Amino acid sequence: MYLLLMVTPSAQATPGSWVGTAPSVRLFTPGRPVQSVSITPSSPLSSDARIRSISWRFAPPVDQPRLEAWLCQHKRCFSLSMARGTSQALAGLDANQALFFVFRLPEDARASKPFRVQGLRVIVDYRSIP
Fold first, then answer.
1. Residue 8 CB: number of other CB atoms within 10 A?
2. Residues near 25 by Cβ (< 8 Å), separated by ≥ 6?
3. Tens digit of each residue's pLDDT (9 = 90 or more) over 72-130
4. Measured distance between the N- and C-terminal CA atoms of the chain, rounded to whole angstroms
5. pTM for this structure?
6. In angstroms, rounded to a whole number, what is the distance separating the alpha carbons of residues 14 and 127?
7. For residues 74 and 97, what is the distance between their CA atoms, to the nearest angstrom?
């Protein structure tokens, strides 16, 4: 005799995503990191929602190509080598927790005037496992 085990949809992981934005950040002093405001889901997710991947986007000034950038949750950050992309670097972390960008001009950069990094946006792809 064989036992057939079927998994009902309610017992499977539930996928979802949320999108968040932050206001622009102003940079001027080389070597000094500047953090964006926190980006959080617009409404709370289930407590078991875990990050699968994060997509990001920001618009650096055209006249400042040597910008250093990171995306962080708490003290865990990963470097952003491009102004847009997708990563699984924070996979498994709580999808309810705030994310933030950090930007910095390299130590040897010379800025003649302050400038803004605009269009800060994240898309968090997550799964909730009941």
1. 6
2. 34, 35, 36, 101, 103, 116, 117, 120
3. 999 999 999 999 999 999 999 999 999 999 999 888 877 777 889 999 999 999 999 77
4. 30
5. 0.86
6. 5
7. 8
